[in-house]
Amino acid sequence: MSSMLNGATDNRLLAALPNSDRQRILASCETVALTPAEVLYAPWEPLRCIYFPSSSFISLIMPTGDSGGFEVGLVGNEGMLGITLALGAEMSPQRAVVQGAGLALRMDAAPLRRELRRNRALRGELDRYLHIRMDQLAQATICAHFHLLEARVALRLLMTQDRARANTFRVTHEALAAKLGVRRVGVTEAASSLQQRRLIHYSRGELTVLDRRGLMAASCKCYTADRESYNRAH
């Protein structure tokens, strides 16, 4: 139970609930260890459970019609994977892939539905989280169309750092290019520029943020908008 309690505390959505509501949810959850590149949801397959990440984080990818995809969101300890189930839908067009290894609390769909019928606090938190996600999706669309690639790379690294909760994490140019929907050479040029400015250090798939303030300055305004969306909702 101790690891489950830690998971609830580390997940900000669960931590915002009254203690009695949180304890009832925990009774229906199990702690799971998520591994990098693990596929939690496949497009248009039935969703059987949700996840409350604590030390892990998950990439949401929308297929582009070929073998690739475009990242439309990251889910870390600020929220929940499986918001579609809370809306009463059984499937999602997105692929959910573990980006950062770590722990999460997993809850089956049936107890989630029971909680949503009786737990007004949970429903309220999920409604706020859904509102934030909708704002972020709209912002991501603007970002992809109008902002320079170097700024978008800086944004993605900041968002990853927030969810990894560490200065050093694993990421490759290939993965960044795929998630941003651009060519690898463009990401390599952008990352090289950030490294030359001593904002980051990159070596063999491991990236270290050396100057977070400088990286924020290099990022587009979408990063500030992303953080402010959480502040406005609470």
Describe the structure.
The protein has helices spanning 2-10, 12-15, 19-26, 83-86, 109-118, 120-146, 149-164, 173-180, 184-196, 212-218, 222-233; strands at residues 29-34, 39-41, 49-53, 57-63, 69-75, 95-100, 102-108, 168-170, 200-203, 206-209. It has 234 residues and is α+β, with helices and mostly antiparallel strands. The chain folds into 2 domains: 2-119, Sandwich (Jelly Rolls); 147-233, Winged helix-like DNA-binding domain superfamily/Winged helix DNA-binding domain (Arc Repressor Mutant, subunit A), CATH 1.10.10. The strands form 3 sheets. It has a 4-stranded antiparallel sheet. Strands 1-7-3 form a 3-stranded antiparallel sheet. The model has no long low-confidence stretch (mean pLDDT 90).
Keywords for this entry:
234 residues; alpha+beta
